[in-house]
Write a structure and sequence with these properties.
Elements: H1 2-12, H2 16-28, H3 30-50, H4 60-78, H5 83-100, H6 105-126, H7 137-148, E1 151-152, E2 165-166
Parallel strand pairs: 1-2
Helix pairs in contact: 2-3, 3-4, 4-5, 4-6, 4-7, 5-6
Length: about 170
């Protein structure tokens, strides 16, 4: 219930033009949007469980949450459509999130990077597993391992391909 309240409060903070952008994405892909919302709630819940102290700030748990979020969006959307369409929607949705709820530049770079790590990880797994058989458990352990090896992002010039990144507090 707490996760729903967080989402509701975030939506209340949007301007009219941002709400219209969100509606265009949602109405053009209603089933994907439902799957995306469910993935959002599930990723918050799992991040809270595994990283209760750092999932809601810019720490390791936030890196885990963003990568898991994109994996879950892709997993759910791939069950009802093609991987290509799911990936396109996932990228639009997660990029739009960063535009609608802007952060400082380094935080935005971190979130976009971790989103991409999650998308890349899902697409890598897709070659060996039929998309209908994916489960959440396929991602959690490996993303926890990636979180243990996460790198500290200190500048906009830093580049850590394939690794999760976080900011030191």
């Amino acid at each position: 219930m707490r996760n729903v309240k967080i989402i509701f409060n975030a939506l209340q903070s949007l301007s009219f033009s941002k709400i219209m952008r969100l509606l265009r994405l949602t109405l053009s892909h209603p089933l994907f949007s439902i799957m995306g919302l469910y993935a959002t709630l599930k990723s918050f819940s799992l991040a809270q469980k595994h990283f209760p102290k750092t999932h809601s700030n810019n720490g390791e748990g936030n890196a885990f949450r963003h990568a898991l979020w994109t994996c879950l969006i892709l997993m759910y959307c791939c069950k009802i459509s093609s991987p290509r369409k799911a990936l396109d929607y996932c990228k639009k949705m997660t990029d739009m999130h960063e535009e609608l709820f802007p952060n400082k530049p380094l935080e935005t770079k971190m979130d976009l990077h971790n989103n991409q790590v999650g998308m890349d990880y899902f697409m890598e797994l897709l070659t060996g597993i039929h998309r209908q058989f994916f489960e959440t458990s396929f991602f959690v352990d490996e993303l926890k391992n990636k979180t243990k090896a996460a790198k500290v992002l200190k500048s906009l010039d830093d580049d850590f391909p394939g690794s999760l990144v976080y900011l030191e507090n």
